[in-house]
Amino acid sequence: MALTETAALPVAPAARRARLNAFSSVGLGAAGLLAFLLIWQAVPSLSLVNPMMLPGPLAIPAAFQSELASGMWLTAVTGSLSHYTLGLVVGSALGIALGVLTGMSRVAEDLTSWVVRVLRPIPGLAWAPFAIIWFGVTPSAAVFIITISVFWIVFFAAHGAVRAVDRDLLEVADAFGFRAAHEKLFKIYLPAAMPGILVGLRTALGQAWMAVVAAEIFGVPGLGHRMIEASALLATDIVIVYMLTMAALYGLLDSLFLLLQNWLLRWKA
Amino acid sequence: MESVIDIQGLGLTFERDGRRTEVLRGLDLAIPRGAFVAIVGASGVGKSTLLRVLIGLAQASAGKVTLDTHSAQRQPVALVFQDSRLLPWRRVIDNVAFGLEGRGLSRRDRHAKALDALGIVGLAHLARRWPHQLSGGQRQRVALARALAVEPEVLLMDEPFSALDAISRESLQDELTRIWQVTGKTILFVTHDIEEATYLADRVVVLAGAPGRAVADHAIDTPRPRRRDDDADAAIVADVRRHLGSSKGAVLAEAA
Ligand SMILES: Nc1ncnc2c1ncn2[C@@H]1O[C@H](COP(=O)(O)OP(=O)(O)OP(=O)(O)O)[C@@H](O)[C@H]1O
Ligand SMILES: [Mg+2]
User: What number is the ipTM of this complex?
Assistant: First the structure.
């Protein structure tokens, strides 16, 4: 009995402490959020700031309700999500394709190196004038700007990941007679580079979201556009509704992406 | 006897940044079909390089290598690397099935063959694991199964057991002997361990020198099943050691 107790001693307190830590960190997080909301509400309620300038959190549900009822919210969200998704898909596909190509082929890398050096420092938003000249104030213009922002992130991630693929594993493909480029691509390069590519995609997921808002501020219908409209009418509660909508959508997409990533990389230790 | 591998005057020189390293020169070696040949040599003498030439990972700079394999075979030669080199993103079964892809076999057939190969090395029960969930010895067994799965005529093995503890190494050596006896494959087994060579092989070839070539070639006639404590012909071991330039060999050579 005494023996089991001594043996159990070093383990139990550690486990209990871990459980307590988990509890207290959730508790602390909730307390912090509550404090934040209280202070936020106090600022307009105590007339520290004109409620027109900063509506309190209590005003938000009503504003959300009216946006929902008018159908504005759904239109804005579906509009933005469609720009976002299209830009993300096109930018990622181009980024992966070119990143992998330049990672696998020295010739392709050398050929593009100077072009990349010239174009890469140009921020996606700097393409807005051309986006509008070429596409007008249309969803395509927003998609174009988002695509460019996503492309560079994914391109560099894919290029680096492919360049870093273990030579030893490529030799395994050779040794088993898989010598053609397409065989090596699908059997070794892509799976081996997957962790690095996914890191790039996850960064792009966030960057694309910023690009959505920025692109829509130029007038393409969506969350960003609706925010600008509301702010012009000084409907600050509606602006906050859309700010929170963005946070919630991004949080949701990022969590979904993490689930996908964990499944794709389930082979990792 | 008919040779499955015939190497004549093989030379290999690496060139990099204008610096030349001549690794092999004038290497002659004929491997009869079905033989179990061990190649011993000091570190850096060119053992791995020789196997890499035979599997097509390196290009000979001189000489001729003839592989007389049945031409219908897509993968007549398979290599077990010095480190296991499993693909970490594939489950054990898919690692073993790797070499079977692109031959028009269905996934089910590939898995059936892979499972057979895993059975030979005694790991069929780990088929669904990921490589990182295996021990070093298990990983090396899977690498062996991956090579066996393609049903090669010639099995090249590059110090496959050198990174293992003594117990795993001995059990894998016995398994390999059994596999060789059952399948009748030709095995070319590289090692720097003389005891391992004489315990496993019919024939021990010593590579030595810079650039390396075959300096000695001994038949090992010890009947099978062998025991670890029956010493292969002491004269052979002494001669191999002398060629390897180990201290024990040097002493023996002086005494002679
Ligand atoms: N790509 C390369 N470029 C230049 N030199 C090389 C290259 N690969 C191997 N070498 C040299 O060739 C020689 C033989 O190497 P190899 O790997 O064949 O040795 P080994 O006999 O297998 O040794 P070990 O028992 O340590 O595995 C070494 O001196 C090594 O430095
Ligand atoms: Mg070696």
Answer: 0.89
